[in-house]
């Protein structure tokens, strides 16, 4: 019998699955969003673009339940991340940084309402343009709670690329024009720098860093040790070995004196070998205030290296007898997990960070989110009021994030865990919205979109310019820190890379991180306020 006759025919059938389509679009969208030009790309919005393309060509049916779950996960994690520092930020940085970000958002609100009202832009399109100009996913989600999805997504789709370009051009041009002033501020602010030396002094071989008086006498910190092909953090219990490459940080003369005593300087970059991070941590835990580093044992307890302390306008390398003050900014080097532990210890009341997401605690937070979102409160003369699932998720996240623990339920998870949940929620939401609005978006494109693109540039650039002028010339915030506040207020991280080409210190990052959690929440409130203002103007008209 011929071989072909004994073959059993096999037919493969594929049944369309909504979940298969959803996660295929997530995969494609993430790949597209990760494509960058000079560090700038679409990021998580790539999922929205991929879903809109699929929605236009194939008209897949969205799953509303996944959109609701996505909103809740995203805003819940925003609240959890912002909660620990949201309320404290007003007390610690209220005089300058928070005031400046409030100015930025106030100008944005007035500017957006004025542009929408003067040019007769549909409210949904205008709020979408604002969210796109700010490249803000929370603003987009907030706008979708009040206006038709098609209008909001159309405005966001038009405004996002032009808002992105506007922000980049503004910061690039401003930094170029103010480069000399920024450099002068850097020179006048700090003389600390880093250098790498090879350990050739045999007397130091086998000794612990804390036992080497040379480092204490000259106020020089060892921020990292390159041994072989791996970089490890340096703590007081680190053992020195001949041939180690030590990264020293301190005042140039002090670094040169210590370096000359241990060996010769080498031109070696730690970045390509290192898995270490550098993080600026604000001291807010009153239990550690006025206690010395020796008493706290931070180097031994967390195995992280403290390279400098910024206190007001003063920046210095701390020694073991240095006491911490409330509001100090501590710059530490270590692995992400070590820094998470150190940040929790110094920055907030002490609760142990869970190494994984506790499912029971997550279920409790989700329950609170849906319970708060489902409450309906009748207001006399105003009708019924409800937070909705978006507001409920945000409030629940803020509550658990702020207190850290309620009963047996934990509200602080590892940063990478909340980041994954947040990105997953945003991706699920974007897929469903993109599938629903893809076709209407393309059909709405006409000559009017050119005007909308111009409006998006106005919505991005005018608030930045106003915030910079007030922040720098009225509030006396240094240029680089002022731009850090602006990037944090607009939740626009790529702008930091432009700033750090002139000022590579931690100060722009500290300014950014000080206002970022506040801006995440306030931009959601701002969208709601703009919607109410526009509704009032429409009723009055």
From TrEMBL:
<feature type="domain" description="RCK C-terminal">
    <location>
        <begin position="265"/>
        <end position="348"/>
    </location>
</feature>
<feature type="transmembrane region" description="Helical">
    <location>
        <begin position="482"/>
        <end position="499"/>
    </location>
</feature>
<feature type="transmembrane region" description="Helical">
    <location>
        <begin position="359"/>
        <end position="379"/>
    </location>
</feature>
<dbReference type="InterPro" id="IPR036721">
    <property type="entry name" value="RCK_C_sf"/>
</dbReference>
<keyword id="KW-1133">Transmembrane helix</keyword>
<protein>
    <submittedName>
        <fullName>Putative transport protein</fullName>
    </submittedName>
</protein>
<dbReference type="GO" id="GO:0006813">
    <property type="term" value="P:potassium ion transport"/>
</dbReference>
<feature type="transmembrane region" description="Helical">
    <location>
        <begin position="450"/>
        <end position="475"/>
    </location>
</feature>
<dbReference type="InterPro" id="IPR050144">
    <property type="entry name" value="AAE_transporter"/>
</dbReference>
<keyword id="KW-0813">Transport</keyword>
<keyword id="KW-0812">Transmembrane</keyword>
<dbReference type="InterPro" id="IPR006512">
    <property type="entry name" value="YidE_YbjL"/>
</dbReference>
<dbReference type="GO" id="GO:0005886">
    <property type="term" value="C:plasma membrane"/>
</dbReference>
<feature type="transmembrane region" description="Helical">
    <location>
        <begin position="385"/>
        <end position="404"/>
    </location>
</feature>
<keyword id="KW-1003">Cell membrane</keyword>
<dbReference type="Pfam" id="PF02080">
    <property type="entry name" value="TrkA_C"/>
</dbReference>
<feature type="transmembrane region" description="Helical">
    <location>
        <begin position="39"/>
        <end position="58"/>
    </location>
</feature>
<feature type="transmembrane region" description="Helical">
    <location>
        <begin position="519"/>
        <end position="540"/>
    </location>
</feature>
<dbReference type="InterPro" id="IPR006037">
    <property type="entry name" value="RCK_C"/>
</dbReference>
<comment type="similarity">
    <text>Belongs to the AAE transporter (TC 2.A.81) family.</text>
</comment>
<dbReference type="Pfam" id="PF06826">
    <property type="entry name" value="Asp-Al_Ex"/>
</dbReference>
<dbReference type="GO" id="GO:0008324">
    <property type="term" value="F:monoatomic cation transmembrane transporter activity"/>
</dbReference>
<feature type="transmembrane region" description="Helical">
    <location>
        <begin position="102"/>
        <end position="133"/>
    </location>
</feature>
<feature type="transmembrane region" description="Helical">
    <location>
        <begin position="153"/>
        <end position="178"/>
    </location>
</feature>
<feature type="transmembrane region" description="Helical">
    <location>
        <begin position="70"/>
        <end position="90"/>
    </location>
</feature>
<feature type="transmembrane region" description="Helical">
    <location>
        <begin position="12"/>
        <end position="32"/>
    </location>
</feature>
<feature type="domain" description="RCK C-terminal">
    <location>
        <begin position="180"/>
        <end position="264"/>
    </location>
</feature>
<keyword id="KW-0472">Membrane</keyword>
């Amino acid at each position: 019998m011929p071989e072909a006759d004994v073959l059993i025919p096999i037919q493969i059938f594929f049944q369309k699955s909504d979940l298969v389509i959803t996660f295929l679009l997530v995969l494609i969208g993430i790949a597209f969003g990760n494509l960058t030009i000079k560090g700038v790309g679409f990021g998580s919005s790539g999922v929205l673009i991929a879903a809109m393309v699929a929605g236009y060509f194939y008209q897949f049916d969205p799953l509303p339940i996944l959109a609701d779950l996505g909103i809740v996960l995203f805003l819940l994690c925003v609240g959890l991340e912002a909660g620990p520092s949201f309320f404290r930020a007003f007390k610690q940085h209220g005089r300058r940084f928070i005031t400046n970000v409030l100015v930025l958002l106030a100008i944005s609100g007035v500017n957006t309402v004025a542009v929408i009202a003067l040019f007769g832009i549909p409210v949904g399109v205008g709020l979408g343009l604002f969210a796109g100009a700010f490249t803000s996913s929370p603003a987009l989600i907030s706008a979708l709670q009040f206006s038709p999805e098609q209008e909001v997504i159309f405005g966001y789709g038009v405004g996002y690329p032009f808002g992105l370009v506007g922000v980049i051009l503004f910061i690039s041009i401003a930094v170029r024009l103010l480069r000399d002033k920024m450099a002068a501020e850097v020179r006048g602010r700090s003389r600390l720098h880093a250098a790498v030396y090879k350990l050739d002094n045999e007397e130091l071989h086998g000794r612990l860093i804390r036992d080497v008086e040379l480092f204490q006498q000259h106020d020089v910190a060892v921020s990292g040790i390159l041994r072989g092909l791996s970089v490890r953090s340096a703590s007081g219990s680190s053992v020195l070995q001949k041939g180690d490459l030590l990264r020293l940080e301190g005042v140039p003369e002090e670094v040169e004196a210590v370096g000359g005593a241990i060996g010769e300087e080498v031109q070696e970059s730690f970045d390509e070998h290192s898995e270490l991070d550098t993080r600026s941590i604000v001291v807010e835990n009153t239990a550690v205030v006025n206690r010395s580093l020796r008493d706290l044992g931070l180097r031994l307890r967390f195995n992280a290296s403290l390279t400098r302390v910024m206190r007001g306008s003063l920046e210095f390398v701390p020694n073991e007898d240095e006491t911490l003050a409330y509001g100090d900014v501590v710059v530490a080097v270590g692995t992400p997990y070590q820094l998470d532990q150190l940040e929790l210890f110094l920055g907030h009341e002490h609760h142990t960070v869970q190494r994984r997401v506790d499912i029971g605690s997550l279920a409790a937070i989700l329950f609170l989110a849906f319970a708060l979102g489902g409450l309906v409160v009748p207001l006399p003369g105003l009708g019924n009021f409800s937070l909705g699932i978006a507001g409920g998720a945000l409030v629940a996240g803020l509550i658990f994030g702020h207190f850290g623990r309620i009963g047996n339920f934990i509200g602080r998870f590892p940063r990478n865990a909340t980041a994954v949940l947040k990105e997953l929620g945003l991706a699920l939401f974007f897929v469903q919205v993109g599938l629903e609005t893809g076709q209407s978006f393309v059909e709405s494109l006409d000559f009017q979109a050119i005007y909308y693109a111009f409006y998006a540039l106005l919505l991005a650039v005018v608030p930045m310019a106003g915030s910079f002028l007030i922040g720098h010339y009225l509030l006396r915030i240094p240029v680089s820190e002022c731009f850090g506040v602006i990037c944090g207020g607009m939740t626009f991280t790529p702008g930091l890379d432009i700033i750090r080409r002139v000022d590579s210190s931690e100060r722009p990052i500290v300014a950014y991180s000080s206002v970022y959690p506040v801006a995440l929440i306030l931009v959601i409130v701002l969208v709601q306020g703009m919607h109410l203002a526009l509704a009032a103007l429409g009723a009055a008209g």
